[in-house]
Amino acid sequence: MQLLHATAEAVPFAKTGGLADVLGALPAAQVALGHDVLVVHPWYARLAAEPPPLWIGDVDVPFDGAQVAVGVGTLELGGVRLAFVGHPSFQRDALYGYPDDAWRFALFSRAVPTVAARLGFVPDVLHVHDWHAALLPALVRHAALLPPGFSGLPSLLTVHNAQYQGWADAADVVAWGRLPGTLAGPLALHGKGNLLHAGLRTADRVTTVSPTYARELLQPAVAYGLERAFADLGPRLVGILNGLDYQAFDPAGDAALPAGFDADDLRGKDVCRAALTRELGVDPDRPLLGVVSRLADQKGIDLLIDALPAVLAQGWNLALLGAGDPALEDALEGAFAAHPDRLGGRIGYDEGLARRIYAGADALVVPSRFEPCGLAQLIAMRYGTLPIARATGGLLDTIDDGRTGFLFAAAEAPALAAALARARAARDDREGWRAMQAAAMAARFDWARAARAYDDLYRDVVADAGTAAAPGASRAARGGAAARPEDAGS
C-alpha cells in the first residue's frame, strides 16, 4: 500500500513535542511491514537534516486566489521517502507562534498533493496529523485543481493533542484552500474557522494516540470545545496507542549514560544514580524522583510544586529538567535555591541529561492533567524507573498500578502526595521494588503493534472508498463515514 503522511514535525528534522516522535517512528514501522511511505513536511529554516534535502525545483500551488510557488526537496531515511515543502513563511526562527500560522499551514496542506505528484507519488491513503495538516481531508474531498488521483482520496486524521486547533476567519480558510464558499459555515466552529474542526468533519476516520484519550475527548475539559465534533464521529473515532523505539532507548547501550544496564543486571543503574546526584549536587543517600517535562499547566507541574513539602517530608530528592511557563520556571528555581542539597535540575532542555535522569532516578513523576499518550513514562519504564502518574490518557493505558508504576486519580497535590508516599513505602521493600523494575522493563509498547492497528483502519477506509465509487453508491452511504460537512453543524 502507498501511504502519505502530512505532518508539521518529524524526528530528526524538527521537533517541539510528541508529534515529531510519532512521525519519526511510525513510517519506519510501516516500511518494515512492506508499505511504500512518503512523509511530507515543511522545509524549515533550521531543518535538522544532514545531508540537506535535494532541491528538485519549484511547483505552483493553487492557493489564496493565486498560484503560489513552493520549493520541493527530497531525501530518503531508513527506507522512508520524505518531501519538504519550501516557502519563505517557513524560514523563521521557530516552527510556530506567529499571527499567520493558520495561513502558513493551510498553504502547506494545499501544497501536499502537488508536491507528492511532482515526485510521482499518488497514495492509497492520506494520513494527516494534527491541525497543521487537518485541512487536507476537506481539500481532497471538495477542492478543484487537484493533481490526478487526489480527488476523493481516502483520508485519516490523527489528533495528537486537541488543545491546539488552528484558528482563522472561516471565509479566509475556504478562500485560501479554494474551497466552495458554502463550506465556510459547516467547517467552522462557533462561527470561526478552525482547521482541526474541519478535519474532524471531513476525514474518513479519526484516530488519537491512546484508547483512554479517545474516550476523554468527549469531555469539554479535554476536547477544548471540540467535544461535539468528537462525539459525532461515533465508531469512526479510534484510539491507537503510540509506541516506543526500543532501539533508540536502550539502557544497555545508551551512550549518554555513565554505565549500561539491563533487567538482569541493574548494577549499572546504581552507577547512573550516583553519577546523577553528583552532577546535580543533591544528597546521594536519599531516594531520587525524576521529572522530564514541559513546564505547562497540562503537565501538572503546579501540582508538583504544591506537593514539594510532601516530597521533602517523605525523604525524596528531586532531579528536574524542563522549560516552559515562566511562572513555573521561577517557582522551581526558587525551590532549587531554597533546598540545594535536596532539589536539583536545569531549566531548559538537554537530551543527554534527560536520559541520565530517566536512568538515574528511582521514580519519574508525571502529574499531567491530561496526557494524550505520553512518552516519558515509556522511556522511564524501559530504564527501570517507575512512573508515578495521573490516571489519564496514555498514562492509564501503559502503567499497571502497583506492578509497573503508581497511579493517582485526582489532579490535586494531596492525591499526588499520597501516590508519592505509596512509592516511597514500596521502595523500602528492596526485593519488591526490584520486581516492579523488572516488570516495567519487560513491558512492551512497540511501533510494529501500532502500525498493524493503522493497517486495519487503512483497509477500512480504502474498502469504504471502493464501495462509495461503485455504481449507485454515495459517500453518505459509507456507514456515515463521510456525511457531507453541510450536514454537520456546530
User: What is the helical fraction, as a range of percent?
Assistant: 25-40%
* Tally of individual domains: 2
Strand content: 15-25%
> What is the overall shape?
elongated
Task: Count all strands and give the number.
Answer: 18
CATH superfamily of the largest domain: Glycogen Phosphorylase B
Find the CATH topology of the largest domain. Answer: Rossmann fold
Radius of gyration equals 23 Å
Adjacency order of strands in the biggest sheet:
3-4-5-2-1-6-7-11-12
Q: CATH class of the largest domain, anyone?
A: Alpha Beta
Average of the residue pLDDT scores: 94
State the major sheet. 9 strands, mixed
Short description:
The protein is of the alpha/beta class. Helices cover 39% and strands 20% of the residues. Helix 1 (18-32) packs across helix 19, helix 4 (136-142) crosses helix 6 (195-202) and helix 10 (267-280) packs across helix 14 (351-360).
